[in-house]
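lol ok so funny story. i was supposed to be doing the assay writeup but got distracted and ended up predicting the structure for this chain instead. priorities right. anyway since i did it might as well share w the group, maybe its usefull for someone
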Amino acid sequence: PADIRWAMEVLGFAPGVPPEREEILRRFRRLVRLAHPDHGAAHGGAAERIVELGEARRVLLHER
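and the output, tada:
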């Protein structure tokens, strides 16, 4: 489905076999840290990016 493809793209996974739960969580945490202003990212767009990452994580974990 399109939602799963979108979520895999947002989290930086290649299309194909869905990643394991632990890899989804690991990638999510890393990307949120990179997007968060407290860790050096720009303030503009940070909230939207973090929401997008959370939604992608939810989609991939819900499909399991």
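The chain has a mean pLDDT of 91. Residues 24 and 39 are 21 Å apart (CA to CA).
back to the writeup now i swear
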